[in-house]
Design a protein that fits this description.
The chain is about 55% helix and about 5% strand. It is mainly α.
Amino acid sequence: MAANVDQPEPTDSSTRSFDSPAPLADDLRSADWRDVPSRNDAMSSALAGAVGGPIGRHALVGRSRYFTPMRVILLLAVVFLALGWSTKAGCIQQTSIGEGQVGLDWSGSRQYVAMCYSDTVPLYGAERLDQGAFPYKTSWEETRGDGTVQVRYMEYPVLSGLYQYGAMKVAKAWDSVTWLPGAIQVALYFNVVAFGLALAWLVTVWASTLLAGRRVWDGALIACSPLVIVHVFTNFDPLATAFAAGGLLAWARKRPVLAGILLGLGGAAKLYPLLLLGPLLVLCLRTGKMREWSTALLSAVAAWLAVNLPIAALYPHGWYEFFRLNSERGADPDSIYNVIASFTSWTGLDGPLAQGESPSNLNAVSLLLFVAVCVGIGYVALTAQRRPRVAQLCFLLVAGFLITNKVWSPQYSLWLVPLAVLALPHRRLLLAWMTIDALVWVPRMMYYLGVSNKGLPEQWFTGTVVIRDIAVLVLCAVVLRQIYRPGDDLVRAGGIDDPVGGVLDGAPDAPPSWLPKWFRPRVHKAGETTEPVSIN
């Protein structure tokens, strides 16, 4: 016989009550428009388990008072910047060099064995910054392999050179104050440089996160990129990424003058931010927004000239050094041209060169290939049935530039990180590429160590470069696929057009009458639609 247990009397929905631990707030607004990766992305959902699991189904989104997405992302960026500094710390250790003096300890090829190499450390002496020299004014002589002497100057664009000069002044001022913690000057210089670069990278993360729009958490991919750990302090490239991201943010906010100024200043630090004017050109041409683009272009030229003209007028030879070196240098170890040469008996486009002789054939081929990339991207931008997003074209252009260029310094991969995340926010695919690219640093350091010093043969390094290039090409292919199939574009899910577009966002096609028919958008067929579909 069943036990006699008191059962609650049934109630209907009209009499059922729900109790809350506290009175409900009057304001129940929720940012439901925001993408929530812990709900729709398997990897993010698994990672969320470490902090309590995915956000609840009935939770109000965007109501946190302190730990907002931006603050969390910037905090993650600080953590990864700290990891980046720790990977370089081994190269600023000091040792006794006799008679009670200390100096930098790079004995036993520490910079390669510990994989802590950073250009900023040797440049402190190589660019005569340790002597307090002003860049572009001070010169020195360098003996070439054939015995001839070359007069040298600061080899960086003006804004990067002035940044180094300013960091040197701060380091020397710090060193002159006896009650501050002391160290050898080059270590102080590196830390001053790193602090400024960290701030620049935080600006990059901040601006890119704002550009992500409803997909705000995509900014975490930039903050937590493995490439940050390896390369954020390898050279001065975060200065350029900050200006580039800031310029795109200003464009997205419909401020073409500010966008041009920031891109022009970025071009005075590294030339690549000026490339971003190219995608804006073809998209503005397609939509009839050439006035806005012309404003941005003139602002960029004015900003670039404002920085460069005084140095060029006062120290023309020092100012020209950057352009001279880029003209005369051969194929870098991880350029596609050197990769081909390392696996074949090919001696290069120019063959053996004399000291100071420019690789004219290599320069011409590299330029022609990049022009072909530009033409191809322009054709896609003008003829795709639906106008591509700004970030998609910017990523394709910068990736094409790196692949076809004769120089792909390892830290250049940082240029791609914000653009790739904004163009293709597929987390696992992006993390796979970033990890591959970051790991290229290991065989690179072992190759520089030299086979005679228990390092790796060149082909071990160039083989990983091939894998890196293939990974970047895969990203390019996926971006192109989504341009022609906008329904697969995660950014455009939910009816979004272009968060980075600014005046282009939602603008109808209005190509000029003089544009040939084959450079016009493809005509829609009956029953076709270009509206994106939500796949989240």
